[in-house]
Structure formats: structure tokens, C-alpha cells
Amino acid sequence: MRTLDPQSLSEHVDRLYRAAxxxxxxxxxxxxxxxxxxxxxxxRPRVLRSDDDLSYLMGVLRNTFLTARRTxxxxxxxxxxxxxxxxxxxxxxxxxxxxxxAQALYGAxxxxxxxxxxxxxxxxxxxxxxxxxARALGVREATITTRVFRARRQVVAELSPEEPxxxxxxxxxxxxxxxxxxxxxxxxxxxxxxxxxxxxxxx
Amino acid sequence: MNDRHLPTESExxxxxxxxxxxxxxxxxxxxxxxxxxxxAMLAVQERAVKMTRSVDVKAPASLHQQISSMYSSPPRRRxxxxxxxxxxGALASGLAALAAVLxxxxxxxxxxxxxxAQISALTxxxxxxxxxxxxxxxxxxxxxxxxxxxxxxxxAHLGWHSTGRRIDHLGASTVTTVFYKNSKGQRIGYAILAxxxxxxxxxxxxxxxxxxxxxxxxxxxxxxTWHRDGHLCVVSGRGVSGQTLVRLASWEHPETSRT
Lengths: 203, 259
What we know:
- The complex is a heterodimer.
- Chain A is mostly helical.
- Chain A has one domain (2-86, 93-169, 176-197).
- Chain A has helices at residues 13-24, 27-42, 53-74, 96-109, 114-125, 130-137, 141-159, and strands at 2-3, 47-48, 182-183, 196-197.
- In chain A, strands 1-2 form a two-stranded antiparallel ribbon.
- In chain A, helix 5 (114-125) crosses helix 6.
- Chain A is globular.
- By secondary structure, chain B is α+β, with helices and mostly antiparallel strands.
- Chain B folds into two domains: 7-54, no CATH class; 78-249, MucB/RseB, C-terminal domain (Phosphorylase Kinase, domain 1), CATH 3.30.200.100.
- Chain B has helices at 9-17, 22-34, 36-54, 61-72, 85-102, 116-123, 155-158, 242-249; strands spanning 141-146, 149-152, 161-170, 173-181, 187-193, 204-208, 211-218, 221-228, 231-238.
- Chain B has a seven-stranded antiparallel sheet, with helices on both faces. Chain B has a two-stranded antiparallel sheet with strand order 1-2.
- In chain B, helix 1 crosses helix 3 (36-54), helix 2 crosses helix 3 and helix 5 (85-102) crosses helix 6.
- Chain B is elongated.
- The interface between A and B is large, with 76 and 62 residues.
């Protein structure tokens, strides 16, 4: 048990910003989300059970993100017109090529279901281990790895639809993600031992 | 090849990002080499990992600054909802006298709600987020709202333009504040408290269009508070007249009726 040192959090701002961008799909929302996350964390002294500040921050980021979305969903909806469509972000970044890549990639991640998105953000964007991500998100490690596998496949499909083996979101993806599954129906060959399945296909 | 050695989705994911233990890694790579389908799947996983890891955008300097300013203030104590030192400095003496009045003005049920003094303090603070724009669907509103209660757009008709905003947590309550400035350089803050509004019991009541606005003033800080759809709203400014604040608070677009 230890008390979180607020000064030590500054080194995580960039990574948390990227994670927030991938969760929200927009830079502006990401800034708000990161600020809100830090405001929550710094509102009072925090006692952590592990040495890993980043996985703790991921947990707070997740809660803040989901809470903000729930709040937004309760607001009355206004009918959108063509003028409501957001224009390109006019602010300079100093890294236009990176911003373009990030916008495309994080935009694709933001289209994933919440479970897949959070798993991918925790592991691939924030850089947590599967174990840390599982702890931060409150799910089993095996669940995280399966979600990450499928989330990656969907992101690649979104960004390059011509890619073979990057078949887009499969409705059955959520059906049995708890069980580690073997892959590739075409490798069933003739022997019947083992459950070798193409993801999403049921025997 | 024996089925037992075919990798699971989890193993392929871990193989792609290098987190698979070395002994498993060799076994899985051998299986992948034997099956083109597995190779293709691994390639997709590796591609996703490479794309994600190659993006290295930095948070904007403004966000770093905002967060740095949060560290410079010690964390708020859970049960002592006092303004942060940075804010307290800005408020200085003017608010102190006002606070003595305002802190007593919230009625019963406000035990878990922030005091009016605290909310008023926030309206005199500094923005930490970008200024909201005029709503493209309702030209009397800005794009920022609290639980469906939108902040007003006063730019075109009244000459008060939004300059920034901030979101603060006072205990379990969230206060969103939008700051406005006019051409004379006068500055005000408009705060909306999320959740059920505590009752306000003192101040001079000025009724406009059936809505009671409560006006309080001390040491150059003027505060007007009222309810919009069950939400507590507070507008404060230093050196701004109560008449101006009440007029702003009760403003209705000539063609629109605001509740």
C-alpha cells in the first residue's frame, strides 16, 4: 500500500492523452477526458495497492469515460443538420503527419464496441501488460487477450478492408470470448481432435 | 501436425506483441510456419500492433499546463470543500466578505451540496478549457450544457462572448462554468451545478417573467443565482452591476422563449 505521488503522474499525460483519443475518437474530447481524469485523481489523496500508476490511471480513465458517456446519453437529443458535422480540427499540432495517422487509427479504434476498445487501448495504446489491463478493467486476463485479438483484427479491417484475414466485426465475437479458442477452420484437416475454429464460426 | 499445438487467439495476440513466454513462442511460431492461415492472422495482429505503437502524438502544451496547474494545488480534502489556493488567491478579500453571506444562504438539503460561496468562487476563477462555440442548431445557446441545460450564447445580441470554461468537482457535485467577456473587458462566470439544486434563501429577490433571481453583492463582487429546470445557476462578476447580471441571467432571445 502506498500513497499516489501526484508529481509522478506528469510523465503519463501523453500516453493517457493517446488512450483518451482512442476511446473518444476526437482530440477535443480526449483533452476534456484527460483533464477530468486528472481532476478526479487529484481531488484527494489516493492509496494504491500496486506500484503501477498507469494501470490505476487506466481504471480512472475508463470510469470517467463511461460516466461521461452515460451523462451525455441522458441529454435531450437535438436534430443534427449538415452544418453540425464537425470540420477538421483547425489547431496546429506541429506533427501533421502523426496527427493524420493518429486520427485515422484512433478513429477506427473508437468505432469498436466498448469492451474491445477498452482492451485494445489498455494494452496497445497505453502499453499495459495483459495482467495489468485485466486488473484495471476488472475482467479476466484471458478475456482481455481474446478481446485484444479481435479488436486488432477489426481495426485492421477498418483501415484496410482489402486485407485478407482481417474480416470485420463478427457478431459472434462476443459469444465465447471467455474461452481460449483455437483458430482456423481450414486447418481442421481430417482429424477430429481439438476444437479448431475460425473465430466467430461455430462447429 | 497435431491439433494440440495450434495457437489460441490469446496466444496469437501475445505472439504478435512479443509478450508470449519464449518457450511458448517457439512452439507457436513452428505451428504458424506450417499453416498459411495462421501466418496471415499473425500478420494482421502484428500489423495492428505496429500501427498502434508507431503513433506517438503528444498531448497539447495547453493540456500539460492545465494538468501542471492541478499539481501545484494540493489535493482537496474530501470533506472540506474549500476553494483551491490558486482560486482563493484570485478571490482575495472581495470574496471573503461575500462568502460569509453566501455560505449561509443555501437551505436545507444542501448538506451534500457545495455552498453558493464555493460556486461563486469558481465563476471568478480562470478557465481551463477552450471557449465553447455558438450552437449551430439553437442560436441562443452555446454547445456546452449540463444535463440538458445549455449555456446561453450572448455574443450577437448582448456583446458578451464566451472566453473559456472549466469543470470542477466539489465533493460529489460537478460544477461547469463558462466565462464571458464584453468589449469593455468586463468578465463574468456562469456556473451550472449538476444534479438537484439546493434551495437559496437570502439575497434581494428580483422577479422577471415569473422567475425569482436572487442578487447578492459584497466588495465589488456581484452574484445572481436562480434555478433553470431544477438546476442551480450562478452568475458572478467583479465590478459588474447587479442590473447587468440580472438582465443577462433573464435574457430571452426576441424570437425564442427560454425557460
